[in-house]
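Predict the structure of Annexin.
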Amino acid sequence: MALVSEFLGQLTLSYGGEEEPAFPTVVPVHDFDPNKDAARIETAIKTKGVDEQTIIDILTRRSYEQRRQIAFEYERLAKKDLVTALKAALSGSLEALMLGLMKSTAQYDASELKASIKGLGTDEEALIEIVCSRNNEELVEIKRVYKEMFKKELEKDIAGDTSGDFAKLLLALFQTKRDEPSNVVDYEKIDEDARCLYEAGVKRKGTDVGTWISIMAKRSVPHLQKVFERYKSYSPYDMKESIRKEVKGDLEKSFLTLVECFENRQLYFANRLSEAMKSKGAKEKVVTRIIVSRCEVDLMKIRTEFKRQHKRSLYQTIAVSTSLNICVCISFPK
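Done. Here is the predicted structure for Annexin.
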């Protein structure tokens, strides 16, 4: 697992001498030469025992668009598809990581969603994490890519694999009808939504889940942040406490994920990473999924939130809490 750890370390750390990017941890490399990279990867694959280090060094230090160019040059040079070559040369966690990097963020999310509903049993944890944490733009792109990759409508697959209010919430989010943020603060609407959330839940016997879904799936994030603050003037509990009292199971987890992401999406991911690494059998799949899916989006902010909330770096926590021992070969700042 040491080589897998190198990947995680390289995706979570900025590179020596370079200005730390504001949001992603993976940015396009300067002086990029896809021909040279393709040739180095081919040599690494042909090396007896496979030179995995070289493959890691290249693919974890290039943006997705640069990896696409490498793949194009590799096929021209080696007369075979790079993904196919990587599958043949690698195995286990390292193979999964490298193949994940060969997808765009939306393609990776679509693949993870497909895997979460494929076959017997559903990985609700992954389903909730992805669907409830992505914004309108991300969800629209995931749906488009999913149809392109699997020739199926994502909503139909979700509907066929989930049920009840949980399914209704996920499908409402996939409709991507969330309002865009506005410079105008509608205090009357904020008060109305806060009161509706209270009256649909804590105030009555039983929960009007439909009202909760409608408000949380359609209102803009800045609006909802103010709604949750206003909600406290109606309810003796805050929104998260109310959710825990009113609903259970996957629906509870989904609503909580939404609220946490509305309040601070990067903190949600930071806490999820921390939770995944708490137990002795760390959920390395969760750690890998978050790092791969967010490394070109907002992983730098997630790192910052992790350090602020948990008082140690994400780097150190991965090293101590998982078998992904990233300390063995990473020389970048911790």
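Residues 249-276 form the longest helix (28 residues).
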